[in-house]
Write a structure and sequence with these properties.
The chain has 351 residues and is α/β, with parallel strands linked by helices. The chain has helices spanning 20-25, 42-49, 65-79, 104-111, 130-143, 169-172, 243-265, 282-291, 303-306, 313-323; strands at residues 4-12, 16-19, 53-56, 89-93, 120-124, 150-156, 178-186, 196-203, 211-212, 240-241, 274-277, 332-339, 343-350. It contains ten helices and 13 strands. The protein starts with a strand and ends with a strand. It binds oxa(dethia)-CoA.
Length: 351
């Protein structure tokens, strides 16, 4: 039986570091002003979320989500010892695509220089859960022999679609820009305790309006309701969130999917080196660790310095700690995620 192996890993964050203090003074063009633009502060953000800083792309009109994806993908392909032309399928998770259509995966394909190659391109829209959803898709494709070298990417450019005013502060402080990628392929071993061992993906659409960004509503004419001279009216252009409902459902979904992953595989924390939760809020992750009785020394977080990069958090966190020498080749990881939709899931895999 064909099994799936992770062949390579890579990540990318832009150079610009935006601290909580600087965030307070940024206008909607990300330019630091003399006076406070958003009534928030470092103490509130750190206490409620654990976030100290995040990364933003330069606001020069030259960087898109596909460019962040390209950086991470190029590193993952090199890490796998492959060339872009070896990739026969791209699965790209993002909630901040370059355009409404076409999908960002085809733009990445062109930027990788493989537009003329026979390569299937999928965009998936499961927000913070996209990477685990994508792992499940990639695993199924490889097990059936459909594709042999799948590039799975999570990439987000959040900083251009946040509300830089006090009205939007609950959401705006959480998010950062970044990307992570993996290359997956068939394994030469049939060892059921290596490669992708387990994936689960769940959804509950009754939470759809608890965390959303409309931008347009196709049932309306005109379908975009935007007045550049009246920012107060432009609610549809910014994300909206019922933070408390998201928080509670995130803890529940991540605890349940973590416990199910262990129960269904028969693995225990003795068999697993690292727990890599989605990075939405450090307080969510602390609660998940407490309730699911996860050994705290096995937990990897990066939200303190990258914020929430949505589809990118899982590969970005693994790659960050690999670069720091913590995560090593062959380590077994349990990852659980939760996001808008609501969607959630878990995966166990060796890196
Ligand atoms: O991947 C999923 C992504 N999203 C999440 O995971 C978010 C989950 N939810 C959360 O992380 C939390 O709900 C937040 C961190 C977003 C908010 O924390 P909270 O404890 O639920 O705060 P709250 O919304 O109940 O607001 C408490 C107070 C309010 O002021 P008043 O009415 O008590 O005077 C807010 O206006 O805090 C105020 N507030 C802020 N103050 C300073 C809300 N946002 C901010 C802010 N800075 N950024």
């Amino acid at each position: 039986m064909i099994r799936t192996k992770i062949l390579g890993l890579g990540s990318y964050v832009p150079d610009r570091i935006v601290t909580n203090d600087e965030l307070t003074y940024l206008d909607n063009k990300h330019v630091r002003q003399e006076t406070v633009q958003t009534e928030t502060n470092d103490a509130w953000i750190q206490q409620r979320t654990g976030i100290a800083e995040r990364r933003y792309v330069p606001n020069d009109g030259n960087t898109a989500t596909s460019d962040l994806a390209l950086q991470a993908a190029t590193k993952a392909i090199a890490d796998a010892g492959l060339q872009p032309g070896d990739i026969d399928c791209i699965i790209l998770g993002t909630l901040s695509p370059d355009f409404h259509f076409p999908g960002t995966a085809v733009i990445l394909q062109k930027k990788l220089g493989i537009a003329d190659k026979n390569c299937a391109c999928f965009d998936i829209r499961q927000q913070c859960s996209a990477f685990v959803y994508g792992m499940q898709m990639a695993d199924a494709f490889i097990r059936t022999g459909m594709y042999k070298r799948i590039l799975l990417v999570g990439a987000e450019l959040h900083s251009h679609s946040l509300d830089f005013s006090t009205r939007g502060r609950d959401v705006m402080v959480l998010f950062g820009d970044g990307a992570g990628a993996m290359v997956l392929g068939p394994s030469e071993t049939e060892d059921a305790k290596s490669g992708i061992i387990y994936t689960s993906a769940h959804a509950d659409g009754s939470g759809a309006m608890d965390l959303y960004l409309k931008i347009f509503e196709i049932k309306k004419l005109p379908y975009v309701d935007y007045d550049a001279n009246d920012r107060e009216q432009n609610q549809t252009m910014y994300p909206h969130m019922d933070g408390k409902r998201v928080f509670l459902n995130a803890v529940r979904g991540m605890v349940m999917s973590t416990q199910a992953a262990l129960a269904k595989t028969g693995l225990t924390w003795d068999d697993i080196q690292w727990f890599v939760p989605h990075q939405a809020n450090l307080r969510i992750n602390e609660k998940v660790v407490e309730v699911a009785k996860i050994p705290p020394a096995k937990v990897l977080n990066t939200i303190q310095f990258y914020g929430n990069t949505t589809a990118a958090t899982v590969p970005l966190t693994i790659d960050h700690w690999r670069q720091q020498g913590k995560v090593k080749k062959g380590d077994r990881i349990l990852s659980s995620v939760f996001g808008s939709g609501f969607t959630w899931g878990a995966a166990i895999f060796t890196i």
